[in-house]
């Protein structure tokens, strides 16, 4: 009798569980609406054995695919380098391309949907920035090549408030950077596997180069504990700054007061097992 009662109770168990689940989902729907219901169902599915790993694998694949599409640019050029064109386009055509690229950017900042990267690009303050830029621009080339200076100004004014830190929001800047890196790789006999980034000036470029050589030494030459760089005494101060930031020692080689070139014998004698860059 006891056994029969236990069997009868167990037969009702799935029905009880299903009823509780239905009641829970109805309660969620009444309190949080359809969005809350879908979220609750999704969370329940993730609790099933093995579903977490399946979802994680699928999500990773989708993210990788999305990032590849976002950063590789035009499908026509994927897998191959873009060389510097032998012949440029006209100023008018270039201006048209800039306008089309700007129109392709998402204006999320003006819609209140961008939490960082830029400020508003409309209003009198924005116009004042443009006028200030014009006032303090280098006009030395304008007399010789007015068209060139004009298109450079137009580019800077057009993309003044875009930020390359988010290439997904500003695809035009992503396109510019990808093409510059590709053209540079082509010029230096690289291949399509070459990667890079555009820096904001000479100092940052030097800092990134020094950091790269230091990191490469750490990865490929773990015996290097006190990395050093051999350089003429007349190097750019940014090298000194980079050495300070990245814990690199610079061995300075004097330069000739007449030829302004370093003593190569002294230069060679300074090289040791911890040297990472000449």
UniProtKB/TrEMBL annotation:
Transmembrane segments: none annotated. Keywords: Lyase, Pyridoxal phosphate. Its cofactor is pyridoxal 5'-phosphate. This is Sphingosine-1-phosphate lyase. It comes from Ciona savignyi.
